Amino acid sequence: MTIRPIVELQDITFRFSNRTEPILDGFSLSFKDHQRLGLIGPNGCGKTTLFHIIMGLHTPESGSLLFRGVPVDSKEQFRLLRREVGLLFQDADDQLFSPTVLEDVAFGPLNLGLSPAEARKKALETLESLGLADFSERITHQLSGGEKKLVSLATILAMDPRALLLDEPTNNLDPNTRHQLIHILRDLDLAYMIISHDWDFLSDTCNDVYAMSHGKVKQCGKAHLHNHSHAHPHGEQPHQHGHG
Ligand SMILES: Nc1ncnc2c1ncn2[C@@H]1O[C@H](COP(=O)(O)OP(=O)(O)OP(=O)(O)O)[C@@H](O)[C@H]1O
Ligand SMILES: [Mg+2]
User: Fold this and answer.
1) 122 CA to middle of ligand 2, Å?
2) Domain 7-96+143-222 is classified in which CATH homologous superfamily?
3) Whole-number mean pLDDT of the chain?
4) Which whole number is the average pLDDT over 78-94?
């Protein structure tokens, strides 16, 4: 049996109603199981808009969005898509809304029909798997920017997605936490697509990188590992050099 791509965008055109120029202009991309795609492109080129179209938050004026080979054109189809695909918002404040971290992470599993006790267990397990066990009783809106990013990831992973759309996941992360995120992503048995301006991060986490410009996307090939020089206080910032 052929497993269809998770998501396929075919010749999508999208423009915001207050703008004449399209943001996406004949945009096509296929995202398959086990793929790890990086997506780069200048500020404002439409990367976040693309993820929002995939999740059904914006509706294209033409073209097709397919989920597992089926056109996504109804609420029910988007429900099925969202069951498999989790979006990490660029701004964590768009993701988190419950008073405590535990409630936020348990919200998704509860929504999927788990009992309160099962949802709590799932939330605690997920937080623990991300090294966030101590965060469960923290007040969500008091978390730092980087902490909010990681807790946001936990809210998505607690729902056992098959694929992730990660919109600038390294924003606000310090070098250690960024490094921790690289390991978390590498260990996940999931397909993901990452929007980032951080080439090194993409080369550490993705197999293919696509560049977006003028409403379209083209493959740049494999993320290229390279040695480079950069500055940091000697001996004070634990991090890795030289990718082999
Ligand atoms: N709701 C909206 N109404 C009108 N224009 C919008 C809306 N949302 C975004 N835009 C504009 O659409 C363009 C694409 O925005 P988008 O957020 O997709 O960019 P991006 O590639 O994610 O940029 P960044 O790298 O800064 O996150 C931008 O020029 C933005 O100002
Ligand atoms: Mg964006």
Assistant:
1) 30
2) P-loop containing nucleotide triphosphate hydrolases (3.40.50.300)
3) 91
4) 95
